[in-house]
Amino acid sequence: MRITVLTGAGISAESGIATFRASDGLWEQHRIEDVATPEGFARDPALVHRFYNARRAAASAAEPNAAHIALADLARAHDLTLVTQNVDDLHERGGSPDVIHMHGSLARALCAACGERWDAPDSMSPEDPCPFCGRTATRPDIVWFGEMPYQMERIWEAIEGSDLFAAIGTSGNVYPAAGFAQHAAHSGAECVELNLDASFNARDFDRRILGPASQTVPEWVK
Ligand SMILES: CC(C)NC(=O)[C@H](Cc1c[nH]c2ccccc12)NC(=O)[C@H](CCCC/N=C(/NCCC(=O)O)S[C@H]1O[C@H](COP(=O)(O)OP(=O)(O)OC[C@H]2O[C@@H](n3cnc4c(N)ncnc43)[C@H](O)[C@@H]2O)[C@@H](O)[C@H]1O)NC(=O)OCc1ccccc1
């Protein structure tokens, strides 16, 4: 079966990584405008680097959970396209061979001057020179609000060719990811969401499986 799976912060919650909209979520402690926009980075790059250095430390201290591992099993049994909004590497450490990080990755750095990318050190600062052009315009390789997500052609193609589309642990209010289920439904795919509670775009799904992902995903994959 051709399957496209979209994951969000909820799949990494049980690995101890904060989600965005929970009461103790990331957006409770930081204004999106300050830490996840190009304008915020231009205003205060040191603040933004501190924010992502802390998330990079949290991600490396975390372990993949049963939901990440179950999706690696699914990839062995089916033609799976795994798309994540998450910037952690728990899918890869959970055994998933090929993950599309549509919002970028904590593991990579990007030079805003020459566009080159390289493996990010644990801690980055505005003074870090680009190893390619030497200029100090280094940023995390993360897609911020107002920026175009990565590999969108490949994602739309996978969705249009899918028999089944599943969204796991995402609240469905950030676009274009929140529009994938509707697009999949229009392309004839069956749509299912696995979440703690119904998402903002719940109407786009044929059915939903409620509960913690580390329990529902292995059950669903079986
Ligand atoms: C706020 C929203 C309204 N704004 C947008 O959508 C904007 C603007 C916009 C575009 N189109 C629109 C249409 C309508 C309205 C607005 C827009 N979109 C953009 O700016 C996008 C880019 C958006 C990407 C921003 N970057 C992120 N992340 C990286 C940074 C970082 O990580 O720091 S978004 C970030 O927030 C989103 C958070 O959502 P979730 O992952 O779902 O997390 P959340 O906490 O919300 O929910 C967790 C869920 O899990 C569940 N859960 C919790 N625990 C568990 C558990 N244990 N088990 C199961 N489930 C669980 C909970 O119940 C909950 O449902 C993710 O996408 C995440 O990646 N870019 C763009 O449109 O570019 C254009 C363009 C076009 C041409 C040329 C140039 C540009």
Protein architecture, described:
The protein is of the alpha/beta class and 222 residues long. The chain is built from nine helices and nine strands. The chain has helices at 26-29, 32-35, 38-43, 45-61, 66-77, 90-93, 152-160, 180-186, 213-221, and strands at 2-7, 79-84, 99-101, 104-111, 117-119, 138-142, 164-168, 190-195, 207-210. Strand 4 and strand 5 form a beta hairpin. Helix 5 packs parallel to helix 9. The two termini are 14 Å apart. It binds ligand BV8. The site of ligand BV8 has 35 residues, from loops. It is an enzyme of class 2 (transferase). The active site is at residue 103.
Helix content: 25-40%
Number of helices: 9
Uncertain stretches of 5 or more adjacent residues: none
Query: Which structural class do the helices and strands define?
Result: alpha/beta
Oligomer type: single chain
Sequence of strands across the biggest β-sheet: 3-2-1-7-8-9
Radius of gyration: 17 Å
Bound compounds, each kind once, are: ligand BV8
SSE order and pairing:
Layout: E1 2-7, H1 26-29, H2 32-35, H3 38-43, H4 45-61, H5 66-77, E2 79-84, H6 90-93, E3 99-101, E4 104-111, E5 117-119, E6 138-142, H7 152-160, E7 164-168, H8 180-186, E8 190-195, E9 207-210, H9 213-221
Parallel strand pairs: 1-2, 1-7, 2-3, 7-8, 8-9
Antiparallel strand pairs: 4-5, 4-6
Helix pairs in contact: 5-9
Bound molecules: ligand BV8.
Question: What's this model, at a glance?
Answer:
By secondary structure, the chain is α/β, with parallel strands linked by helices.
